[in-house]
Design brief:
It is a single chain. The model is unreliable at 1-30 (pLDDT under 50). The chain has helices at 3-17, 35-64, 68-84, 86-89, 93-100, 118-126, 135-154, 159-177, 189-211, 216-234, 251-268, 271-274. The longest helix is centred in the N-terminal third of the chain and has 30 residues, at 35-64. The chain has twelve helices and no strands. 67% of the residues lie in helices and 0% in strands. Bound molecules: copper (II) ion.
């Protein structure tokens, strides 16, 4: 990193901390172009975390009321706002662990008392078919989600995490969604898929104006892959706006998604370099 780069980065950080602040006239640093997309992204994330808090409240209420069916119906839609902003949520590793870890991360798996969060609740609802053992986990999830919301509101978004986030989301899909690892008890994986795609596409759309001029073919290719992935997922949409079980996904469609996800991950991983953040 050279000195000019450091200056630009710190100027950028202070501008992002105060989104309303006007840019100094004549500032033509490449990375200052990121100010607008970053502040737009911050708004997007704030909306998603507010939604997450509200939806989690509903899920927690259903669990505490002992309403298994209602809690099941709220599980997948509640998660989507978390999945869409995972590049930012993951900056808080402690919370990401307690909110979204899988049983495999714990020595005693599902029976491990430190296994908490969405997937512990998912296990209770689908495998134990009961809310009895998960009421405390519901309270904990609510507290963690509030904490996440507070921390995100105070966060100065690191440009590399945002720009790199588009690829990170596609890598998340490649690593934990295609395999069906993430929502193994409920088979609601396709909801997460869509949210991950939307989160990645949001970042790409915000950055697009910065790359479209120099690299129109790249933009076209990425847009094309996003839309093929979207069309493939759309085949599994249900009438109530949700998704069919992951088991319904055909091998052919799984292959299409897998190819698109890997290509997108690869292409989007070049964004940081294209925008001078490497
Ligand atoms: Cu996740």
């Amino acid at each position: 990193m050279n000195f000019r780069h450091i200056l630009a980065a710190s100027a950028l950080a202070s501008v992002i901390a105060a989104p309303g602040m006007a840019l100094a006239a004549g500032s033509s640093e490449a990375s200052l172009d990121l100010v607008q997309p970053l502040s737009d992204y911050k708004i997007y994330v704030a909306e998603k975390t507010a939604e997450l808090v509200k939806d989690t409240q509903g899920l927690v209420e259903a669990v505490k009321a002992g309403d298994v069916d209602k809690a099941k119906s709220l599980f997948a839609p509640t998660r989507t706002s978390y999945e869409a902003i995972e590049p930012i949520a993951e900056l808080f590793a402690d919370l990401d662990g307690s909110i979204d870890a899988r049983a495999d991360d714990y020595e005693k798996g599902e029976k491990d008392p430190t296994f908490t969060g969405f997937h512990r609740i998912e296990y209770g609802l689908w495998k134990e078919n009961s809310t009895d053992g998960i009421k405390d986990y519901a309270d904990r999830l609510m507290a963690d989600v509030q904490d996440l919301n507070d921390r995100i509101n105070k966060l100065t978004f690191p440009p590399e995490a945002v720009v790199g986030g588009a690829a990170a989301l596609m890598e998340e899909v490649a690593a934990t969604k295609i395999s069906g690892e993430e929502d193994r008890y409920s088979r609601t994986d396709l909801w997460d898929f869509e949210a991950n795609f939307q989160g990645a596409e949001k970042i790409f759309d915000l950055l697009k104006p910065l790359i479209a001029k120099d690299d129109p073919d790249f933009v076209k290719k990425v847009d094309g892959n996003f839309s093929t992935a979207g069309e493939t997922l759309a085949k599994y949409k249900t009438d109530n706006g949700g998704f069919e079980s992951y088991e319904k996904l055909t091998d052919a469609d799984r292959a299409v998604l897998s190819t698109k996800v890997n290509t997108l991950a690869e292409d989007l991983s070049t964004l940081r370099g294209k925008l001078g953040l490497d």
